[in-house]
């Protein structure tokens, strides 16, 4: 049976190839670290519930995107219907950090007239000895674009919950304040599943359908 | 081996050794699957890499293998030059992630072979270049040509047991056969991937005609075909099926006219409809997407692929270029 949730948010995860997008999402949604995984082609879908306050649950629909340039024509179709995003770079790969500007430019063009609340994620922070991007410069960059910055590791499960939960809370606040609102024809935010009444009538519909079959 | 299998193998041997192999007959025989023993040579012939005339084969192979290693000599060093380094970098990071669960592909020697094949192909085809997914397409050829030299389980074989010469011929043959395959589907990988866009639309159109219920179910829960079928086209279903099944599937694709570019569409439709019960049981977007991204084919073998192909064949004949009045 469907769990009860207040809102559904659609999030998108972007960043260069091999910064660890799929691994981060898998750690978050499946609770394990995939040692090996095929490169993502196009877009993959994941989902999880998060509790932002006792009893207040948000359903996250997460789109994992391919990092390779050629897939951009497919992946950019998903920006428009996302309310939030995690923009990843790999702290051991300077180039992936430099490309953060490009990613923001790219999304800005294609998300109009909506906006995406981004968090900048410095991933693979377990590999601190190979670090090529300091925390300080990443924080500076994030601040310049009005984003929060967080460092995560899917391997060691560092800050993975926090990255997603903090972003979800921020979006929730914006929704509560009315800065972001539910709109017809936009998938970014959907209002929740109201318990009791709807549930029981759904059950009736279901059983009727089964009888017909 | 059953009597029937023995007869089939005999028939293949006869065809393959005749002075001029009858390619139409070979396609007909290969459609329902090629016996393992004769698969390497059959694939070389079906892909158009080897000539039908037996006398010309040896020379052709020799010439093509030399040509390939000529490319390597001429171009492979350019992988670190500025205009090619993005291509090489992407290939280099994708190779260890290709079939990560099969030990064969974790061997350094094998990974180097894949890198060379993909890099040479990419720089010779600048309109598409290297696109993720193409790395998967080398695999079946490599495994089939390797199987010619390996008695035991190919997926766990240590390639250092083979001579340099043998490895070189496997590499060159894989390159050429993959090139032939890609010639037919290059628009899958050019800018904005028009081939895939077109095929996903065609799949949607086809499913709306053959299974309105499934089609409407997707619409009701706002599932778009591109969300799950993009990968089916980009990787030719290789991510959805075990490798052994892909190899069997390709026996047929190479026997069909335009197997990879056209017949594949009907296979995708048949594959989707195969799960219609599971699909109709899911009653939200999330459940549907999770199902479609993780279809349980792990135990599939020749029998399932045979049924799938038979259904695809039926669909092709019922619906190919059918006018709109077929629409219900």
From TrEMBL, chain A:
User: What membrane topology does this protein have?
Assistant: Lipid-anchor
- Main localization of the protein described in the UniProt heading: membrane
| GO process terms (BP) | autophagy; Rab protein signal transduction
Question: Chloroplast among the record's keywords?
Answer: no
- Compartments in which it is found: Autolysosome membrane; Cell membrane; Cytoplasmic vesicle membrane
Which InterPro entries does the entry mention? P-loop_NTPase (IPR027417), Rab39 (IPR041818), Rab_GTPases_membrane_traffic (IPR050209), Small_GTP-bd (IPR005225), Small_GTPase (IPR001806)
Any idea which UniProt keywords this protein has?
Answer: Autophagy, Cell membrane, Cytoplasmic vesicle, GTP-binding, Lipoprotein, Membrane, Methylation, Nucleotide-binding, Prenylation
Task: Output the SMART domains linked to this UniProt entry.
Answer: RAB, RAN, RAS, RHO
What PROSITE patterns does the entry give?
RAB (PS51419), RAS (PS51421), RHO (PS51420)
GO function term, MF aspect, one: GTP binding
Record carries keyword Membrane: yes
What do the Gene Ontology cellular component annotations say?
Answer: autolysosome membrane; cytoplasmic vesicle membrane; plasma membrane
The record's comment on protein family reads:
Belongs to the small GTPase superfamily. Rab family.
- Write the protein's name: RAB39B, member RAS oncogene family
Organism (species): Pipistrellus kuhlii
What taxonomic lineage is listed for the species of origin?
Eukaryota, Metazoa, Chordata, Craniata, Vertebrata
From TrEMBL, chain B:
Which residues are the signal sequence here? none
Q: Which UniProt keywords apply?
A: GTPase activation, Phosphoprotein
Entry's Gene Ontology molecular function annotations = 14-3-3 protein binding; GTPase activator activity
Q: Which InterPro entries match?
A: Rab-GAP-TBC_dom, Rab-GAP_TBC_sf
Instruction: Kindly give the Gene3D superfamilies that the UniProt entry links to this protein.
Output: putative rabgap domain of human tbc1 domain family member 14 like domains, Ypt/Rab-GAP domain of gyp1p, domain 1, Ypt/Rab-GAP domain of gyp1p, domain 3
Q: Does the keyword Transport apply?
A: no
* Domain of life, per lineage: Eukaryota
Classification via PANTHER family: TBC1 DOMAIN FAMILY MEMBER 22B, TBC1 DOMAIN FAMILY MEMBER GTPASE-ACTIVATING PROTEIN
Q: What is the originating organism of this protein?
A: Pipistrellus kuhlii
Keyword Signal included in the entry's annotation: no
UniProt function note: May act as a GTPase-activating protein for Rab family protein(s).
Which protein, by its recorded name, is this?
TBC1 domain family member 22B
Tell me the ranges covered by the Rab-GAP TBC domain, including all copies.
Answer: 33-257
Pfam families (UniProt xref) = RabGAP-TBC
